[in-house]
Amino acid sequence: MSERINVLVVGSGAREHALAAAIRTSPLCGDLFVYPGNAGTAQITSAARELPKGSAPGISANLYGQYRDLMRFARLNKVEYMVIGPEQPLADGLIDEIRQCTSIKVFGPSRNAAKLEWSKLWSRDQLPRWIKRPKLLMYGHLKNQAGIDSHIRCLQKRSVGKVVVKRDGLAQGKGVAICANLNQVREQLVRFLEDLYEYGEWILYEECVVGEEVSMHYLVDGRCCCLPLISARDYKRAFDNDQGPNTGGMGSYAPRALNFELLQALDEIAVCSIQTLSEHHNPFQGCFFPGFMLTDDGPVLLEVNARFGDPETQSILPLMKTDPLELLRATGEQALPAWIEWYPETVAVSVVLVSAGYPGSHITGHPITGLETVERMENIHVFHAGTALADGQVVTAGGRVLTVTAYRRYLCCSSSESVCSGGQHPLRRYAVPY
Fold first, then answer.
1. Alpha-carbon gap, residue 322 to 27, rounded angstroms
2. What DSSP element (H or E) covers 246?
3. Residue 325: pLDDT above 70?
4. Residue 298 confidence (pLDDT) above 50
5. In a 3-state reduction of DSSP, which class is residue 267?
6. What angle do CA 76, 77, 81 make, to 5 degrees?
7. What are the C-alpha distances in Å from 398 to residues 111, 278, 345, 347?
8. pLDDT per residue over 399-427, tens digit each?
9. Rounded distance, CA 284 to CA 268, Å?
10. At 384, which CATH number?
11. How many CB atoms lie within 10 A of CB 46?
12. Which of 408, 403, 406, 407 is CA-nearest to residue 16?
């Protein structure tokens, strides 16, 4: 067996808890840490050495100030491998700095490659023109009330009806709104304006496409190979019956049943996108995560993300038989296997528990009970997000609090039907000619 390595997962959400729980099962994993983590990750991680005040063990001055505590923690605990969960550190260029300034190996794309996610306008320019995307009605810069009035006037001239309003940058899954009319557009822009930076932000207006969403994840080695994970579907609206505002994700299931022809069509879009990035001298390495809408006219690419999805990861990882840590390391070493092994005929469903008021304002500090009971149940995982410990009691500490994931085997109608197995074919490994 290979020598064990110390691993640090960066983040504090349920996705990071799921990643850490999967990595913990690997025989390659030595000490495991999650930073900053939450009450759930604290139960599965190794005892960490806390950083003494005023010390700075070998930290490069080039590292961004907001991540210095993280890097000090990594050095002090002799971390050898890091997995970046959230999108913000990728957009900040944390991975570039780690690779340039330390000997720590890290999973994830460069800042330029992650721009696919943190700039939707840039993403539209970079990906192949033949890929079907929602029609871009217009875009404009929003800084103040006058900007809102100007945007509304432009939309009125275009006589638009139902429209999707998107922030160009990152918004923790809450930067997209489906508006039935211009009054709703105005209300959404007012909410955006309250949260924009001092110098404003670009806003996109797209046509509203109708269908069923599907999330795809691909491990990309940055040189020649692209390896798909199983498909999934997430649900973004806050309330029952797909009502209410968009959120960071209220639940998911995997695999999302797809016939093999459709699966190949989605794979072709992903592979060609990755190849095009390389042709633009911007190779992608890490988890390439496109979201599609399956319409009557075929798949439409809604967006591209540069990391594992949340809550899709909570449904996908419990179904994986292949060593997850070995898989992540192989991505960075251009040594991806021919395929990933999954538990056969097994499905996972995840439900997100949130604080009252989410995605708006909410109160924290409420005690959470029943966790011990759930831990004794078979085939159930509880992944923590917005939780903390207060005097030994787990309490709420955010909007999305817990993800509860259940999985089980099911009876397939026919082993020859790819739709029953989620369309997951063992030979879906693609060479990307860079």
1. 12
2. strand 243-254
3. yes
4. yes
5. helix
6. 115
7. 27, 38, 35, 28
8. 999 999 999 987 554 333 333 344 455 55
9. 16
10. 3.30.470.20
11. 15
12. 403
